[in-house]
Structure formats: C-alpha cells, structure tokens
Amino acid sequence: GTDYEDNQLRFSMLCQAALEAPRILNLNSSEYFSGPYGEDVVFIANDWHTALLPCYLKSMYKSKGMYETAKVAYCIHNIAYQGRFSFSDFSLLNLPDAYRSSFDFIDG
Prior knowledge:
Number of domains: 1
Strand content: 5-15%
Low-confidence stretches: none
Number of strands: 2
Structural class: alpha+beta
C-alpha cells in the first residue's frame, strides 16, 4: 500500500486518543483500576504508528501529575516501516519544542 500524506497527523491523533481512553471509559468496576486516571495502565505501542505515545504520555500527562505510574511497552513488528516524515511537519504533532531535537536524524 501507499502512505497517506497526513499519516503523521492521523497516527498522532491515534496516540492522543489512546491516552485519553482510560480517562473517559468507566474503569471504576475494573479490579485493575486505581485512582482517578487509571494509573495502573500499561500502554502497548506497536511500530512507528504509535511511537509518539510515550512522548505524549510524558509531555501531556505525567508532567501534569496524571498517569504517574503508567508504563509503555514498545514493540517493533517490522523495522522496514519507519514512518519518516518531513521535519517541517513536527509542528503538527502537538509536542513541546523541547522534543524537536529528539526527532532530528541529521544532528542526533
């Protein structure tokens, strides 16, 4: 298949939605639930499509005292698919500028 031109935005939104889901879903009846934001959550990120999830977890939630004990397991299914996009698209990702250098393959 071919990539869509806005895949970076599509999968960015997927990661952000995955982090919002435990906050919105009724987890009170779950034996695994603790606290107001499901702090015992383990997020499974698979391939480049969900590679931004740990970045959003740290910048948007842990920095605000949410998901403080949440963990991420990152699995690489196929290293051939790396999801590389133009560096100018970084601003679409809704991440702090401090993260920008982490995505620069030329200097880092």
